[in-house]
Design goal:
The chain is mainly α. The chain has one domain. Helix content is 70%, strand content 5%. The chain has six helices and two strands, in the order H-E-H-H-H-H-E-H. Pfam families: OmpH (PF03938). Keywords: Coiled coil, Signal.
């Protein structure tokens, strides 16, 4: 019974604690898409990614060619020669897998480069968000782009995304 009274007291005081608090949200995806530097970063990341994808495709093609050559000459090879060629192909496959993991794997070079290129832009945006939040005396500012579970409903009058764009010196037409 005592637990229920404490819980009831806590629940009754909760609205008092949040009175006077201002809340808002921004859509960082919207802000990023409006920022001209983001387009440059995306182009650079895509160019780098396609370059690495071509390299990975080249390795895959080399492996296919080795398999095709082996298939064509299979009847002419001794068991020992066949095993040597299979060993060469398997080594090439290991190299290809290692390359893909090193470049595209978790915390791979592609991910690291993307993070490195995005860091300055993200810092600018979060600094602008900080200034907008302080200037508008916001207690909490949610990010609408962080996922569907973060915000179920949003009232457009609480969207501060345009204020952040303004703080960054960007107009709505970018």
């Amino acid at each position: 019974m005592e637990k229920w009274l404490k819980l009831l007291l806590l629940l009754s005081l909760l609205p008092l604690a949040s009175m006077g608090q201002k809340f808002g949200y921004v859509d960082t995806e919207y802000i990023l898409n409006k920022h001209p530097d983001y387009k440059k970063v995306q182009q650079e990341v895509e160019a780098l990614g396609s370059e690495w994808k071509k390299e990975a495709q080249k390795l895959d093609n080399e492996i296919k060619e080795l398999y095709n050559a082996l298939k064509a000459e299979e009847v002419l090879l001794t068991e020992e020669m066949y095993e040597e060629r299979i060993a060469v192909i398997r080594e090439k496959e290991r190299e290809a897998v290692a390359f893909k993991n090193r470049v595209f794997g978790v915390n791979g070079q592609f991910f690291q480069k993307q993070s490195e290129l995005m860091q300055p832009l993200q810092s600018k945006i979060y600094d602008a968000i900080d200034r907008v939040s302080k200037r508008n005396a916001l207690a909490i500012l949610f990010d609408k782009a962080s996922g569907p579970s973060a915000i179920i409903y949003t009232d457009p009058r609480h969207d501060y995304s345009d204020f952040v764009l303004e703080e960054l010196g960007l107009d709505e037409n970018n």
